[in-house]
Design brief:
The complex is a heterodimer of chains A (106) and B (407).
Chain A: E1 3-10, E2 13-22, H1 27-38, E3 44-55, H2 57-70, E4 75-79, H3 83-91, E5 99-101
Parallel strand pairs in A: 2-3, 3-4, 4-5
Antiparallel strand pairs in A: 1-2
Chain B: E1 5-9, H1 14-25, E2 29-33, H2 35-40, E3 50-54, H3 59-69, E4 77-81, H4 86-94, E5 98-99, H5 106-151, E6 163-170, E7 176-185, E8 190-201, H6 202-222, H7 228-231, E9 236-237, H8 245-248, H9 251-268, E10 276-283, E11 289-295, E12 301-303, E13 309-311, E14 329-333, E15 339-343, H10 345-348, H11 360-366, H12 374-389, E16 398-405
Parallel strand pairs in B: 1-2, 1-3, 3-4, 4-5, 9-14
Antiparallel strand pairs in B: 6-16, 7-8, 8-10, 10-11, 11-14, 12-13, 12-15, 15-16
Classes of the chains: A alpha/beta (106), B alpha/beta (407).
Protein name (chain B): Sigma-B regulation protein RsbU (Phosphoserine phosphatase)
Organism (chain B): Umezawaea tangerina
GO molecular function, one term (chain B): phosphatase activity
């Protein structure tokens, strides 16, 4: 299982598009993408999860890491998450920190 | 080791012939090959102690050839020799290659090749030692982490009459931060138990797990038992009603330990992205009443003797995620014949050789409503897990707990 990320920054919104599974083996890939996106000091971080089938607790940790790294003022949006992925996010209570949206820009 | 076998690699014969004669005269067993032949017959690569490559091939091809000759346990010396273009030789020498130039006098040639070979062996030995050393350091770190982790798991479980506690704890090779704990609370009138998953791996996770376990236990031990109304920050979940005082015994320490651990982690370890999902239960062994806080953890399942399956869903977010998180108390009751099954996500995340996770629904299917014992329940899950993962390396810790009230 691998994970690919693609990042675009527009008008202080950084969008990371993920393709693959986010698990313990691939979490570092997402960490690096988040760290790289943080450099542009975005006001909003959108993670496009349409092409993510699976998110483990290690993947969840990336999201918490993103929240802590970017600071309170930065909105984190999880867009297009599959039902299982959204459930993982809700179970851990991360939906209190991030906004879950059906689609990017939705 | 005697240096006896030389390999000459060149496209053309002219200059190589002269070198060939000198090598034979200085006692070498000489083989010759064109670069294309080496690609066709890889066995040739295993033979030589020294390799002499024509500089006319160019630095890049010389370097590639050198890499092909270097095996896992052998480092033949690779030298270059000039053909008509001294510039080509100079490029290779600047690129780090040792060299020989005419006139090729057998005694000098042999001395040069032997010393080059010995230097190569030494470099190889040092590289191997460096690799071993870093491997040892890594293994030592793992050993330390495992000891920390093992030292913080309960040695003896004091289980009240009429109850069974069964555990599975299988750390992954990389040592993640799962832990479980069982301890007496409120002067032995309540039994506290924790199943938790620290979201990290390695030594730092083991240290972090030790910290969290200590914070939870210490606060639970040092909070007075009765101050539920002072301590509870939110309403009871799921009912929302208040508990009679006898039921609420242990609620104060439970809430305090989770809330203060959360606050401590969120304030002090924010930058590291650490958090922990946990299920902390406080059992009254006499009545079967169970108070709990589920901080973002996979819902444990209460398997009723009646066949009903009740998930004990989160009553608050993962611990350490935000300093102002609110935790509610959950309440359930274990009647005779009921079993509580709690686990960490190493169970549902376990991958098959094809990469498919074990999954929550498969786990739920396994949890028959009437397990004959907690031990057999865990064994059944273990067997299904082993079938699923096959020879795949276990990536995450696997922890399971079965708490059963004898029926």
């Amino acid at each position: 299982m691998t994970l690919d990320t693609r990042t675009t920054v527009r008008a202080r919104t950084a969008t990371i598009t993920l393709t693959g599974d986010v698990d313990a083996a691939s979490a570092s890939v997402l960490d690096e993408a988040i760290a790289a996106a943080a450099v542009s000091s975005p006001r909003r971080l959108v993670l496009d999860l349409n092409a993510v089938d699976y998110l483990s607790s290690a993947g969840l940790r990336c999201l918490v890491f993103a929240h802590q790294r970017l600071g309170r003022g930065v909105e984190i949006v999880l867009a297009g998450a599959h039902p299982d992925v959204a459930e993982t996010v809700r179970l851990a209570g991360f939906d209190r920190v991030a906004t879950i949206e059906d689609q990017v820009g939705g | 080791m005697a240096v006896t076998r030389a390999m000459l690699v060149a496209e053309t014969a002219a200059h190589a012939d002269e070198l060939h004669r000198a090598l034979t005269a200085s006692g070498f067993d000489v083989r010759r090959a064109r670069p294309a032949e080496l690609a066709d017959r890889p066995a040739l690569l295993d033979e030589p102690d020294v390799v002499l490559v024509s500089a006319a091939l160019g630095l890049q091809r010389v370097a590639l050839l050198g890499q092909r000759f270097a095996g896992a346990d052998k480092h033949p010396a690779v030298l270059v020799f000039p053909e008509d273009d001294p510039g080509a030789l100079e490029a290779c020498v600047r690129g780090g290659f040792d060299y020989v130039t005419p006139p090729y006098l057998p005694g000098l040639l042999r001395g040069r090749l032997v010393s080059s070979h010995e230097r190569g062996q030494l470099v190889g030995a040092v590289e191997a030692m460096a690799t071993m050393a870093s491997l040892h350091a890594y293994e030592r770190d793992l050993g330390i982490a495992r000891e920390i982790q093992a030292g913080f798991l309960p040695e003896h479980l004091s289980v009240p009459d009429g109850w069974e506690f069964d555990f599975r704890f299988r750390p992954a090779r990389h040592v993640a931060g799962d832990f479980y704990d069982v301890f007496e609370m409120v002067n032995g009138r309540r039994l506290g138990f924790v199943v938790a998953d620290v979201c990290d791996k390695g030594v730092s996770a083991a240290l972090f797990m030790a910290l969290i376990r200590t914070l939870l236990r210490h606060t639970a031990d040092n909070t007075s038992a009765w101050n539920l109304m002072d301590a509870a920050p939110g309403p009871l979940a799921p009912g929302g009603g208040s508990l009679p005082p006898a039921l609420g015994l242990g609620a104060g320490p439970l809430v305090q330990s989770v809330v203060s651990t959360n606050r401590y982690l969120a304030r002090n370890h924010l930058r590291q992205g650490y958090f922990v999902t946990l299920f902390f239960g406080v059992l009254d062994p006499v009545s079967g009443s169970l108070l709990y806080i589920n901080g973002g953890h996979n819902p444990p399942l209460l398997l009723r003797g009646t066949g009903e399956r009740v998930p004990l869903r989160p009553t608050g977010p993962a611990v350490g995620m935000a300093a102002d998180s609110v935790y509610s108390l959950g309440h359930a009751r274990l009647d005779p014949g009921d079993t509580l099954f709690a686990y960490t996500d190493g169970v549902v995340d376990a991958r098959s050789p094809g990469g498919a996770p074990f999954g929550t629904s498969r786990l739920h299917d396994l949890l028959a409503p009437h397990p004959p014992s907690g031990r057999e329940l865990l064994e059944a899950v273990d067997r299904a897990l082993a079938d699923h993962v096959g020879a795949t390396e276990q990536f995450d810790d696997i922890t399971m707990l079965a708490l059963r009230r004898a029926g």
